[in-house]
Amino acid sequence: MPTRRLPAEIARGLRDVAPLLIGIIPFGLVAGAAAVEAGLRPLQAIGLSVVVFAGASQLAVIDLLGQNAALSIVVITGVVINLRILMYSASIAPSFQSFRPRWKAITAYVLTDQAYALSISRYAEKELSKTERRRYYLTVALTLWIVWQICTIVGIIIGARVPDEWGLGFAVPLVFLSLLVPAAASRPAIAAALVGGVVSTVGTIYNFPLNLGLITGGATGVVAGVVVDTYTNTPGQSSSETNH
Fold first, then answer.
1. What does the alpha-carbon distance between residue 58 and residue 216 come to, in Å, rounded to a whole number?
2. Cα 191 from Cα 169, distance rounded (Å)
3. Minimal CA–CA distance to 17: which of 154, 146, 182, 179?
4. Tens-place pLDDT, residues 140-172
5. What DSSP character marks residue 18?
């Protein structure tokens, strides 16, 4: 009995996103467990995951909530970390220009680093119709969303059952460190990671006012990266040429 095959771009999207799930699964589990450790109730933790849906931002918000930071600082931190989404949106918007408003709203909600990177690469590789572009993007983005939500829920359940004396406070720092390793692929990136990490750690240890350690670390890390990029390049030489 013949079986109906998936549309080409849906099958391609599933194939492309599959390797990324290896990293998403433990990340989501940690996010769920950390939310419980920070004092959020299960429904609050699930709501945060559904509404925010942004790994690094979500963990930063959870960490600040666990430190009883002011709500304004929590919100500002989440927004600052997610500012890159504005650049992604501006870059990918022409590909979605012909979509109906409801599709634009859905694509905006599920936009992530991985969905953006895979989709932009796919669109540059082959000329796709509007329907094909939508199928590919939503296959990638919704797969990531579903796996993330399932993993955070499992993490919440596991975290709720872990004895308090075990503690899960180490989880958030370890995940952020794991994110820095693949990102630090050039001298500016390494400088940004080192400076940002050190300042954030110092800010946490010495309790910067208003729990601003994370924001201060992020800002100084960006400045350090820009400074290193500026002073390691000569006129007419790009950073990519310097690093090869």
1. 18
2. 26
3. 146
4. 999 999 999 999 999 988 866 655 544 444 444
5. G
